[in-house]
Amino acid sequence: MNVRDNEIKDLLTRYQKISVYGLSSDAQKPSHYVPAYIRSQGWDIQGTYPKVHNENGFKIYKTLAEVPAEYRKFVDVFRSSDKIPELVDEILDLGGTEVLWLQLGISHPEAEARAEQAGLKVVSNRCLIIEHKRHFT
Predict the structure, then answer these.
(1) DSSP-derived 3-state class of residue 17
(2) Where does 5-64+75-136 sit in CATH, by number?
(3) Which of 32, 34, 36, 135 has the CB geometry, 3.0–4.6 Å to 9, for a possible disulfide?
(4) Which parts of the chain are beta strand (E)?
């Protein structure tokens, strides 16, 4: 993680459009209720999920490549840690991502280092709800 604690508020202020990688249709899962909370706080959220859905009004794409570029600047990830290297490959191949945010419990130091070397801001093992409440409420 190359983002210091005192930089998180700035990231959340600067990026108002977020792509959620792994946005579930199951409202009981963090990969659904975290994006729903963030959207309720004013952010514009679009997501990816292997099974396209529009649960709770989210616009969902099957692949990250289909997500409009302005949403791919900030990618919030709900995937297991072992999937992060292939996601970093995909993000670097597509280009345009500036922030890679790995949710609470998700970390892969080698893949994070590759993303950082490519110029991305990387936040790992942090929850957007927790960080929003800490910095904005």
Answers:
(1) strand
(2) 3.40.50.720
(3) 135
(4) 17-21, 44-48, 59-61, 74-77, 99-102, 121-123
